[in-house]
Design brief:
109 residues, mainly alpha, two-stranded antiparallel ribbon, 5 helices, globular
């Protein structure tokens, strides 16, 4: 279920971040990667990629390393908390929030 955007991060990089062996749960990793990208895009209120209409494909616009790191941090959170649990409450990832802060748009006046 990988998309051009998640491919730009790479399942190899995601597996390394999650400390998983090759080919372990690739569909689930891709799903959580999509969710992590969505979480970052919602926070910064801007897409991490733009649609290139003339070729009908997505183009990597040079995603800043801090936003890539935020995606990986959220991916780790989603992976570690993938089972319903009543033992603990998932909290905001302050490191990811700090990495995304400079890129947030449409804050209003």
């Amino acid at each position: 279920m990988a998309t051009p955007l998640t491919d730009s991060f790479g399942l190899t990089q995601a597996r390394a971040h999650l400390r998983l062996d090759p080919d372990d749960d690739d569909p689930m990793i891709a799903l959580y990667m999509e969710a992590a990208v969505d979480r970052v895009e919602q926070h910064i209120q801007a897409p991490l990629s733009r649609n290139v209409a003339d070729v009908g494909a997505q183009e990597d616009i040079g995603i800043p390393p801090s936003l890539k790191a935020a995606v990986l941090l959220f991916l780790g959170d989603f992976w570690e908390n993938r089972e319903a649990s009543f033992d603990h409450k998932m909290i905001e990832n302050r490191a990811a929030e700090a990495l995304m802060a400079p890129y947030r748009t449409n804050l209003g006046v």
